[in-house]
Every structure is written in structure tokens, then in C-alpha cells.
Design a protein that fits this description.
By secondary structure, the protein is an all-beta fold. The protein is built from no helices and 5 strands.
Amino acid sequence: TLSKDKGFVSRDLPKDLMYQRGQALSDMRPAGKVSINDRTYDVISEGEFIQKGETVEVISVSNNSLVVRKV
């Protein structure tokens, strides 16, 4: 199992990421990476294809998952 004693650590995302905007660092089909406030996050789009370089907005923050949409 993925346990803390074996070196696995989960990271809850800060709720203040909600409605923050950032830039897609990769194409999202639907998963990819974005830069928000000079930090890189793994995200999932709301289902649409988003191209690298497009502006996105966080629409959901849940434990360790971010969902974004194109702005």
C-alpha cells in the first residue's frame, strides 16, 4: 500500500487556488500541467481540449485534485 511509513505523502491543495488563473504548460486532453502564481500543478480540464499557452481558471479544488477551464 501507499503509506506514509513507506515514504508516500499526499499533499492537499490550498483552497485559495479557487478562481485563480494561470497558463497551460502542456496540451490538456484532458490532463496536463499549468503554472499558477509561479508554481506548477497537475490538473484536469473540465473535459475540453486546452492548448499549451492558453489561459485557464481553476473551477474546483478537491484534496489533491484541480479542475480548470479555458478562459
